[in-house]
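Changelog entry: the Synaptojanin-1 isoform X3 record was regenerated in this release. Current contents:
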Amino acid sequence: MATRSPPHPHTFTKLQLAVFTWNSANSTPLYSHITHIRSKVLNEGIDVLVFGLQENFIKPGSPWSLIEDPILRQLQEAFNGEDLIQVHNSYLLGIIQVVYVRSSLVPFYKEMGSDTIRTGYSGWVGNKGAVCTTFQLGSVTVSCVCAHLCSVESNIKRRNEEIFEILTSYPWFNLSNYSILYGDLNYRLEIITFQEAIELMANKETKKLLQCDQLRMQILTDQIPRFNEAEILFPPSYKLVPYSTNNYNNSKQRTPAWCDRILFMTSDRPTPSYPNGPKIPVRVDPVEYSCLDLPDCSDHKVVYAYFDIYSDWLEYSPPLEFVLPDVSWPVTSDLPVKIELLHNMHERIPTIAKPPLFSSWDWIGLHRFGCMTSSDYLCYTWSPLRAKSADPKSDNTYSFIIKSKTLPRHPDGGLYQLYYHTADKHILAVSHPFSLTYSDEGSRLLN
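Regenerated structure tokens:
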């Protein structure tokens, strides 16, 4: 009996987004950090994970540099086999940003733009600056800016200038419904000594300590844009003695501070792909804002935030779905698969969702369930749609064959999925997970 792709959340009005930021001080994380991040993300049922690093200097010059990075490799291995797909990564010297999306939401994901912005030494050096990306989920546009601003307690004005420089240099930021500025923003505590700060922390007087926070003062006095920030209830994230949890380092007379921050703002704007359309209302509720209370190999703690994003305009219909013969099949014979264009795709958001134009360069990849990235395919075949537009009045079913000789040779007991890839690197559909059955005679080499 034919098996269709799982029902997509056509009316999902809430997205759960997690943001993690860490200045690694060019060190390799303890495995307990990665394990803790993995358990928190999976236990909370996160839909989108944004992970930012600062001072993570990897060897440049190779297209595999990001894959070889020990932190990102541990992160990839932690989520291997889970239901999160890496859809974006970007890198500027020591600043890295990675985005994961739940596989069932990948057809709703569309990258709108990305950029790297240097601010170190008047823009000549990338040791300070930001990596930026903007994407749509449904019709809600999200911008993520991972920044590392200039240091030194007295450089408040320069940090403010760098924020303006980053935001004005990245136009997508002002076209988004939901924008996040996060990372090592390097704002410090002032008008307070190291010992006074330690005493307030010992007495858990966080509110008094926050009265000396430079960033909050800059926002309140309109020196920088009026970002929102969840309530801070965790201890300062800097400057710690490495491999300790609450032992702060006074060797350079640096007062503990919340250098690592996650700020956000919302705006009811039309979607960028339809600028004359209706404004998209968005509400964001911070769920948790804290740091990992673990021994750290850096002098910064890992800071994270969870958000619930609400909007009726998250509703969206995928343009097509896979129809498979069964939930499992033998590799000894070719597999006939059908693609069905959805008849109701024009009815979901008719003023915003335009019918996709399919290209003869579109292709269908076979992936392991929970693959690390959408480029991790085992084999592929070209799409049968061949540059047709989705017309709901026409016959919307197309067939293709996956040759048995292209399937994986060795059984591993795992599950697989089919992805529909467009020529412009978007994913329009993901099939339900299925298994492959093997026999000694029927195994085939992967071409």
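The helical segments are 31-44, 65-68, 70-79, 156-169, 194-202, 206-210, 214-220, 345-348.
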